[in-house]
Amino acid sequence: MAHRHGARVLLDAAQSVAHMTTDVQTLDCDFLVFSRHKIFAPTGVGVVFGKGDLLETTPPASGAT
């Protein structure tokens, strides 16, 4: 429904990613995010999936200083 109105869809998969298959193509989300420690990796790093065309055209929200 969001896509029909031109909205972008961001899915926070932090609680589900370690417990179920996450298929971004089936979900058709524009962005998917989660913390790596949720999949038993070291803390302090996150994951951002984005559709390629959106990643190419979306400027970063902030940059490293």
Question: In words, what does this structure look like?
Answer:
The protein has 65 residues and is an alpha+beta fold. The protein is 15% helix and 20% strand. The chain is built from 2 helices and 3 strands. The chain has helices at 24-27, 52-57; strands spanning 10-12, 31-35, 46-50. Strands 1-2-3 form a 3-stranded mixed beta sheet. The relative contact order is 0.18. The model has no long low-confidence stretch (mean pLDDT 86).
Let me know the number of strands: 3
Question: How many separate helices?
Answer: 2
Q: Helix and strand string, N-terminal first?
A: EHEEH
The radius of gyration is 13 Å
Beta-strand portion reads 15-25%
- Helical coverage, percent range: 10-25%
Low-confidence segments, ≥5 residues, pLDDT <50? none
Give, in spatial order, the strands making up the sheet with the most strands. 1-2-3
Any descriptors?
single chain, 65 residues, alpha+beta, three-stranded mixed sheet, 3 strands
Question: What order do the helices and strands come in, and which of them pair?
Answer:
Blueprint: E1 10-12, H1 24-27, E2 31-35, E3 46-50, H2 52-57
Parallel strand pairs: 1-2
Antiparallel strand pairs: 2-3
How is this structure best summarized?
The protein is α+β, with helices and mostly antiparallel strands and 65 residues long. It has helices at residues 24-27, 52-57, and strands spanning 10-12, 31-35, 46-50. Helix 1 links the parallel strand 1 (10-12) and strand 2.
